[in-house]
Specification:
- The structure is a homodimer.
- Chain A is mainly alpha-helical.
- Helix content of chain A is about 70%, strand content about 0%.
- Chain A is built from 9 helices and no strands.
- The longest helix of chain A is centred in the first third of the chain and has 25 residues.
- Chain A is elongated, with a radius of gyration of 19 Å.
- The termini of chain A are far apart.
- The model of chain A has no long low-confidence stretch (mean pLDDT about 95).
- The interface between A and B is large, with 43 and 43 residues.
- Chain A binds a DNA duplex through α3.
DNA sequence: CACACAACTGAACACTGTTCAATTAAAAAT
DNA sequence: ATTTTTAATTGAACAGTGTTCAGTTGTGTG
């Protein structure tokens, strides 16, 4: 078959990303198959290589969709929160976990896909990934009550790593949190301790 | 070829685990191949299935070796530390990172291999995994200066998750810590803040 | 020495990623 | 309206994977 008019280039791109994202959600990274994703879109393997240039780029595109959904999820949760600083941070951490829980396979795939340092990520996809850091940055700055300093940026990254660690070990079912009933609560406790230490306020016990 | 007397059952087990571990260290989880591991041991694929019963069990055995090496590494670092409580905790966190850095592929493979909840882990391998938690438990209890309570155990798991998160994002080269020069230092800072909050002492800024 | 057993093999199967010559629909030129 | 050109799409080919299992062959026993 030759050139088809079923979809415009952009629509085809979106279609393939959509099918890939769905497949990732049901099967997980280990059992993901580009062939199967293409099949579901009504195309054949080669098309994925045509459109994205390679499997890595395709996976990056699929995972970037997850990033976008994740950011939107967090913003919604924050918008639905009417409260002071502490409540907003709590809502953010809880929403972080809730999204990962509701999209286990897709969420884990983000970290399962190891990107070779030589592979360049499309600008738009890079932005989708940085949007998440941006949200945390904004909320932490808001909580601290002062402008964004280099020290705050370092802290933000560290807080993300802290929450990530709890969430990752929780979803992977690792040894650490097997008997922990509220990993999000533990992550939140660590975040509040860190924030308190950086503001001079006392940490809530 | 039939029964050979090259190796006793135990020796063969160890040989296969050793070759698998080496291969994992050079190639990483994604490019690991049971065929290749068997080839290097001088056996064929089927033998791995004979000895371990399946690929999952083999990978668990391989990763458990990494766990054992990791524990030994941490104990050595602690033994070489002559200092007070803070220094021991610092040594522990630094050694955690140093091991992961020196054994990137093998360390990441531990978390890359998702174990189906139905798969049962051999008792000895389970023990190897829990040994690490045990070390942290012991050191945290020592730092806090009081006996092991349920609350302490929860904190220990949370601290492990905190350090894990920093280490994982660092090694995966993720967005969060790309420009962070000392992720271990950040993890340590978070750990000390948490420990301080749980002891009543002031957190060091 | 023959037998029986268990260890070990490797071909078979169904899948994967990746490449690329061939095909063919649509657009452009006649 | 017909031909030519262009580019999108295919799918067979290749090398690799995990997994199974009938068959082969060393080794210990009767």
């Amino acid at each position: 078959m030759g050139r088809r008019s079923d979809h415009t280039p952009d629509a085809l791109r979106e279609l393939l990303i959509g099918c890939g994202h769905d497949l990732m959600a049901e099967r997980g990274f280990a059992k993901f198959s580009a062939r199967e994703a293409a099949r579901r879109a009504g195309y054949s393997v080669g098309t994925i290589y045509n459109v994205f240039g390679g499997l890595d780029a395709y996976l990056i595109a699929v995972n970037s969709r997850t990033f976008r959904e994740w950011s939107a999820w967090l913003e919604e949760a924050l918008a639905a929160t009417s409260g002071d600083g502490d409540a907003r941070v709590a809502a953010l951490v809880r929403a972080y976990f809730a999204f990962a829980d509701a999209n286990r396979n897709a969420w884990m795939a983000i970290y399962d896909h190891r990107i070779d340092r030589t592979t360049t990520i499309a600008k738009q996809d890079e932005a989708a990934r940085e949007a998440l850091t941006g949200i945390v940055d904004r909320e932490v700055t808001r909580w601290l009550g002062h402008a964004d300093e280099p020290a705050t940026r370092r802290l933000v990254r560290s807080l993300i790593a802290t929450v990530h660690g709890h969430c990752a070990l929780w979803l992977s079912g690792s040894y650490a949190l097997m008997r922990e009933e509220d990993p999000a609560g533990q992550a939140l406790a660590r975040v509040m301790e860190a924030l308190s230490a950086h503001s001079g306020r006392a940490a809530p016990s």
